[in-house]
Amino acid sequence: MAAAVAITHVPPVFQELTEEHTQTTPIPRRRDVLTNINYYKDPGDGSLPMPIVIAELLTQLPSNTVKNERPHIPQQTIVHDVTGEEGKYTLDSHGFQFLRHESKTNSLQEFQDEEHVKGKYYPESIRLLKEVTGASRIFLFDHKTRCGPSNWHKLGKGNRSSRGPLLRAHVDQSYAGAELVLRRWFPDEADELVKRRYQIINIWRPIRPVLKDPLGVADGSSIPDADLVAASIIYPADRDETWTILPRATHRWYYKHAQQPDEVLLIKCFDSEASVPARRAPHSAFEDAEYTDGEARESIEARALVFYD
Q1: Which residues is 73 bridged to in the sheet?
Q2: What is the DSSP letter of 94?
Q3: Closest to 142 (Cα-Cα) out of 304, 309, 306
Q4: Which pLDDT does position 6 carry in this prediction?
Q5: Which helix (H) or strand (E) holds 73?
Q6: Considering only CA atoms, which of 254, 273, 223 is closest in space to residue 14?
Q7: CA dist 189 to 180, 182, 195, Å?
Q8: How far apart are CA 38 and CA 173, in angstroms?
Q9: pLDDT tens-place string over residues 46-78
Q10: Where are the alpha helices (DSSP H) in the chain?
Q11: Can you tell me whether residue 99 is helix, strand or coil?
Q12: DSSP summary character for residue 207
């Protein structure tokens, strides 16, 4: 993938308010939310989770149709607002990180234009990730724009074009699934690339301020590997493997209230370095009762393979 073609100013990461700063600037009030996080409901018989199917040929569904019938169980959870404390959370310590970064792409119409996103937004995102991580190489391999209802999975034929928030705890790639992604995009280099540290990081950005169905992200260090269950996504000629998540009361969840388009959330889905506290960060949209009647959330997530020398 080509290097960034436009230099985008990357303001510093969120900084803690200093004592001097608080004399003139009020500390933002945080707004924690009591809600449900939907976890995987294990049938208890040792069976694997039902795969998510895209373009299921047996029923002649088109390739823009997603079928997801996995059972889930809601668990009441407090999702903590990071407002005013964004600088506490980093990719290695928690598996996620909030940044200030203004994109030159700023409308839903532009974010729905594949050519525009790949030609303009991808280079910006590559530059951002290089500056934040210090990685030697960034490859954006996918993106998803969401602007539909939260029940989009139930809309039937063609529902993928109305993609909305996903109200289920998950990680986009399992450990094995991350290598599937690497080998798909770099078949000739994969044997060497897996010998060095690599990551998969999502860049999640609101297209307009988010109130309805905000994105929650879990502290990866609070979720043991025992709570991760590998689950497949089946395509007509390929497959991916993700993590679905078992419930546990000690999981810690966070979000940014009224997250703005210049408040970017980096979510680490995989890290080959096993010694860091957080190798991955489960995430899920969740319902905020105060905003259930609001307009559908608009957001974009870009997915990147991140390589280190």
Answers
A1: 39
A2: T
A3: 304
A4: 29
A5: strand 72-81
A6: 254
A7: 13, 9, 11
A8: 18
A9: 888 988 887 544 444 444 545 567 889 999 999
A10: 19-22, 108-111, 114-116, 122-133, 175-185, 190-193
A11: strand
A12: S
Pairing of the two strands 52-54 and 228-234: parallel
Give the C-alpha separation, 187 to 177, whole Å: 15
Closest CA to 271 of 238, 308, 297, 302: 308
Give the model confidence (pLDDT) of 138-184 as tens digits. 999 999 999 865 554 444 444 444 467 999 999 999 999 999 999 99
79-135 tens-digit pLDDT: 999 999 999 999 999 999 999 999 999 899 999 999 999 999 999 999 999 999 999
Residue-range domain boundaries for the chain: 32-307
Domain 32-307 adopts which CATH fold? Jelly Rolls (2.60.120)
Nearest to 169 by CA among 210, 202, 217: 217
Q: How many CB atoms lie within 10 A of CB 238?
A: 10
CA distance 215 to 291: 13
